[in-house]
Amino acid sequence: MKDAQWIAECTMKELIRGSFVPPETIQQLRQYDRRIFYLNEEIVRKLSKLDAVLQRCNIRLSNYVSNVDSKSYKAVVRAISQGITTPEELVKLIHGRIINHHGIDAITASLKGVVSLAEIDMISQLRDELDMAEAHKEKCQARMLEICEREFPEELKRLQTIPGIKERAATSLIAEIGTDMNKFETANHLASWSGLKPRNDESNKKIKSRSITHGNVYLRKTIIECAWAASRTKEQIQ
């Protein structure tokens, strides 16, 4: 009887300690934060579809720009959606650094395509969808910043003193972790909860797996991006 009572008490302690029900403010921040992650994924998909339409028109500009989210690429897409398809006009929208690197003949050739009215309409619609997604993302981020500045001004300020962490990352960290660190007994518990602590799956001196755990995928993405950003700063953490 005593053993059963002891097991029940231990189980209840583990449940209480393991539960992480954040306050309402943090829950609201999480909704905005995860909406931004979804919008980012949607933007990537839309950009991929947009480039597929251009590739179908034999416009290969994506082979010469750093990414399909660059200013030059967006400027060309905007012009095509307005019915401007002449390579000599489109090349004027390309940044001089790109032209100097690849040559104006190569860039002009990549803009020579056959764009039908239907494809112009598809490009225009995809561009409108991208603009809407970007506007929604900015609105969510503005709301997150407003809440954090009102409820957690000191935490927001301190987080941004860490190399690699700016406004977006700081609000995301507050949303996913909260401000009460008593929920995590040690730093290792927080690392494990974020999914950045490798497992030690070893049996009979044979290592089976050292991959990271699942954890909080939103928090993990933010931390990894911050780490990459910090590694590129002059005052990086060693």
Backbone structural class:
mainly alpha
Strand content: under 5%
> Taking all residues together, what is the mean pLDDT?
85
Give the N-terminus to C-terminus distance in angstroms: 54 Å
Q: Tell me about the largest β-sheet.
A: 2 strands, antiparallel
Helix-strand pattern = HHHHHHHHHHEEH
Number of helices: 11
Short recap of the structure:
This protein is mostly helical and 238 residues long. The protein has 11 helices and 2 strands; from the N terminus they run ααααααααααββα.
Helix and strand topology:
Blueprint: H1 2-18, H2 24-56, H3 71-81, H4 87-90, H5 96-102, H6 104-110, H7 117-151, H8 153-159, H9 167-177, H10 187-193, E1 201-203, E2 206-209, H11 217-231
Antiparallel strand pairs: 1-2
Helix pairs in contact: 2-7, 2-9, 3-7, 5-6, 7-8, 7-9, 8-9, 9-11
Explained architecture:
- The chain is mostly helical and 238 residues long.
- Helices cover 65% and strands 3% of the residues.
- It has helices at 2-18, 24-56, 71-81, 87-90, 96-102, 104-110, 117-151, 153-159, 167-177, 187-193, 217-231; strands at residues 201-203, 206-209.
- Strands 1-2 form a two-stranded antiparallel sheet.
- Helix 3 (71-81) crosses helix 7 and helix 8 crosses helix 9 (167-177).
- The protein is elongated, with a radius of gyration of 25 Å.
- The N and C termini lie far apart (54 Å).
Short key terms for the protein model shown above:
238 residues, mainly alpha, two-stranded antiparallel sheet
